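Worked example 2:
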Amino acid sequence: MARSAKPWFCAQTGWWKVWLNGKRVRLAEGKANRKAAHDALQDLLYTARHNPSPDSPEQTVVSVIERYLEVAAPSLAQQTQRFRAMYLQSFSELHGWRNVTDCRPDHLQEWVKANPQWASDWTKRDAIAAVQTVFNWAKPKLIRENPFAGFRHRAGLARRDITEAEFRAILRTTGGPRRRKPTPGARFRQVLLFLWRTGARPAEAAQLHWTDVDFDRCVIVLQQHKTVRSQRRPEPRVIPLDPVVVRLLQSIQRRNEGERVFLTHRKTPWHKDNLGHRIRRAREVAGLPADVKLYGVRHAFGTRGIIAGCDIKTLSVLMGHTDTKMTEHYAHIAGKRDFLAAAMQLINQPLVPSKPRGVDQH
């Protein structure tokens, strides 16, 4: 006889969790919230008992989400799967028991308000997009229409590139006397320098393995990357390495710390949360504004490429975009007054007069 599911507290994450249908499910945050965890478990068990089959004309929120996670989600990149599943789990805990026909856009709004930790408008939009994607996918296979189609959330403030002065200020916060073993700040500094000189996505640096690095050809070859599933003919992403980055990677390789290139001082992989924590600390120490973000290093690479005269098609390949539209979005040249002024002078420079025909040229 199978044992009944029981909540347990994970001290590492600070959440009550439970194993349910072979999956680890979060119930409630905080060790003192044991009763809330048990109540959340009972709600999940009730929903599971009343969960309709995919062929049923009446679907619940959780039945649609589970079908999506079972059928569609496996084709997504692992990181996308992880973050999307996190949002969908949260939405299921609040509205999973509802019949889809009873759902309204304000239920989505209620869910967003119930998660005040999502301070950024970009985070809220990502959460909403995760739910919208599921119910758009389910139409018309499981449901007639998306009940949340009318809900929208404003866009966040435009993300900008980090200026060179800001980047150097952040580097200064990671400095210190050279030691035999790299300090936590020095390890973060290596990630920053890699991002600045390659234009790589932070996630690409965090997930980089030594098997991806080809020192003979001075390139990184990523077989799995963000846009591989959107390409008609899937191709690896190739990141050329300049001599500075080659020397950086070789110095890291000599430490022989494992299969990952960049590791924290605890010898664990970098990820979105600890990278974000590091950039926030560095920003505060350096006295920089709150809109200085880690992804701004990648923006800065795109902007520098435009200013240096790199054509947009080549830059899109270097940045790993499927087309040039995204590259144009990243390369924020609108505020680069010196660059634009020089371009205007180039356009309006006087033409060299040509000599009339028939005039002897001696």
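The beta strands are 8-10, 15-20, 23-29, 213-214, 219-222, 237-240. The longest strand covers residues 23-29.
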